[in-house]
């Protein structure tokens, strides 16, 4: 056997090995591609194509037939409603993620010191199981302006009424022709010291009278002594009909709890509160004429609470609902990072004399910085897409005051604007705002994997 033949026989197997390896790698790539292809197909159909279509559609007018170039983008930043949506979105991005991250951090640290930590975490995480639609309906009812429906206003009114009494006669008014109404809502008449005066009122339903109200007729018969004013404030209405206007009839009721003042030269010189039968007595008066006044406080409307869904508070109110849903999410993620912290560093700090606040500020927070950043950026991405809560909670009249980019995009495209060109431009703007946060999260995730 020659040397050439021997070399050829040895080189054959060596050349066949790399070839089989390349074929194996190609086969593995093909199999992987076959498995990934359905996911890529769905990704292209549900993400890539809609994005490309929206970008293209943003360069056409409302009908989609005329190319307008950057016209939709310039119009977008001239529209006051869109500018308000951008402002509200900025408020959401600045406030909501920061509050959620802070609350999640504080709760995660405190939960470690609670005996029933698992139950507490479950309780805070439960709102995540509630859909945004259901949560929006819940908070729309909770924020209702009527204290009889909205639980928040019911609580606010209860606290207010506990410290400041309200009027029992918000609908009462003086009998026309007998009493005169002032600009501030008070009612008055004139009388001289030593006289008795009757102050007839209407507008109060018999069922709304205080339980201690007594008949006014006996009080009306009492005469005033010298140097005093005496009288009765009564409901000038006889149940069942009959009676005389401006005269106290036997079946007419007094109005207890009314404040009555004797005014002279613009100053109240005497004041009294009516008894159960509506009677009052103002003693110690000098001779002369006085204005007998029922101050406006007697007829003040009851406190109705806070207008949570008014133009000024609608955005903070919706952010509050968002916090209720997502606080558990932030707490659980930060709690997982907290559980992975090196305990020896914390114990060493305690042995060196550091208190819990110093440990939290100088050790726990710096070590949790990567986790806090991921939670914050994730919440920023989520906040930029918020739609359901804003659309459901904000009433129609203040929808524009609460609108964000996602709701504005829907309103312009489908909610009556019927301008899908401008709506697509808003969608592109929203995409451009989300991309930096997504890129930041992906890069940080890759660095953590290394």
Quick synopsis:
This protein is of the alpha+beta class and 450 residues long. It contains 15 helices and nine strands.
Keywords:
four-stranded mixed beta sheet, 10% strand, 450 residues, 15 helices, MetI-like fold, elongated
Structure report:
By secondary structure, the protein is α+β, with helices and mostly antiparallel strands. It has two domains: 230 residues, MetI-like fold, CATH 1.10.3720; 127 residues, no CATH class. Helices cover 54% and strands 10% of the residues. It contains 15 helices and nine strands. The strands form two sheets. Strands 2-3-9-6-7 form a five-stranded antiparallel beta sheet, with no helix packed on it. A hairpin with a 5-residue loop joins β2 and β3. The mean pLDDT is 87.
Provide the residue-averaged pLDDT.
87
Uncertain spans:
none
The sequence of SSEs as H and E is HHHHHHEEEEHEEEEEHHHHHHHH
How many DSSP-defined strands? 9
Query: What coarse outline follows from CA principal-axis ratios?
Result: elongated
End-to-end gap: 56 Å
**Structural class from helices and strands?**
alpha+beta
How much of the polypeptide forms β-strand, as a percent range? Answer: 5-15%
- Radius of gyration using CA atoms only: 38 Å
SSE topology:
Elements: H1 3-57, H2 71-76, H3 80-111, H4 117-125, H5 132-142, H6 151-163, E1 173-174, E2 180-181, E3 187-192, E4 196-202, H7 217-220, E5 229-235, E6 259-264, E7 267-273, E8 279-282, E9 289-294, H8 314-339, H9 343-351, H10 356-367, H11 369-384, H12 388-393, H13 399-402, H14 405-413, H15 420-449
Helix pairs in contact: 1-15, 3-8, 3-11, 4-8, 9-10, 11-15, 14-15
